[in-house]
Amino acid sequence: MSRLRRYRWRSPRDPLRPDEDGSYRRRRDRRLIYNRALVDLARHYGFHPKACRPYRAKTKGKVERPFRYIREDFFLARTFRNLEDLNAQLRHWLDTVANPRTHATTLRIVNEAFAEERSYLRPLPLAPFRSVLKLERRISREGMVSVGGNAHSVPDATRSRLVEVHSLADEVRIFENGELIAVHPVLERRKQRRVAPDTDEA
């Protein structure tokens, strides 16, 4: 989401959230409890999330299922050398295919609709949002932690068998009892091993 916002350089003031996407839950008294990650994202970009009413399709946004369109049009029969190549191809596809087209639901050219709505969007903050996926991982006998299908080393002095992993867009951070013990870059391919210089590989 953060990358998509930066592509358009704007953020909505009051984005709608569907009832089933996990960004909030309803209590028995009908009050809403928003996901902490969504609250942090909203605070960073300066918007106020609005929950859709359950079982009321008209309260949802008019344009839905954009990821299906991307899967079935952009990703179909494509190959990528790395993440940088994927992003470059995606940007070209957006500029030449997705945004100049007439949208099937709104019957409007996507670029023209965005130009009209641009003034209602807020400028993005200079710093991007640092989303963090927090995981609990067990250290293997070889002193490695599995994250995203790849193995990352921990220092030899690590005593705990369970560690907390913070997975960010560009790096993986490993914590032992709240203390940062290892930082690794995100590996682009799967089934790789990354051993930090201060670690003896078993």
Structure characterization notes:
This protein has helices at 2-8, 36-45, 66-74, 83-98, 110-117, and strands at 10-11, 16-17, 24-26, 32-34, 50-51, 122-123, 133-138, 144-147, 150-153, 162-167, 171-176, 179-185, 193-194. It has 202 residues and is an alpha+beta fold. It has 2 domains: 2-123, no CATH class; 133-194, no CATH class. The protein has a 4-stranded antiparallel sheet with strand order 7-10-11-12, with no helix packed on it. The mean pLDDT is 82.
Which features would summarize this protein structure in a list?
three-stranded mixed β-sheet; IstA-like_C; extended; 202 residues; 5 helices; alpha+beta
Instruction: Report the principal-axis shape.
Output: extended
Number of domains: 2
The whole-angstrom Rg is 21 Å
Q: Tally of extended strands?
A: 13
Mean pLDDT: 82
Oligomer: single chain
Q: Report strand %.
A: 15-25%
Could you give a short account of the major beta sheet?
4 strands, antiparallel
Protein topology:
Layout: H1 2-8, E1 10-11, E2 16-17, E3 24-26, E4 32-34, H2 36-45, E5 50-51, H3 66-74, H4 83-98, H5 110-117, E6 122-123, E7 133-138, E8 144-147, E9 150-153, E10 162-167, E11 171-176, E12 179-185, E13 193-194
Parallel strand pairs: 2-5, 9-13
Antiparallel strand pairs: 1-6, 3-4, 7-10, 8-9, 10-11, 11-12
InterPro entries: Integrase_cat-core (IPR001584), IstA-like_C (IPR054353), RNaseH-like_sf (IPR012337), RNaseH_sf (IPR036397)
Keywords: Plasmid
GO molecular function, one term: nucleic acid binding
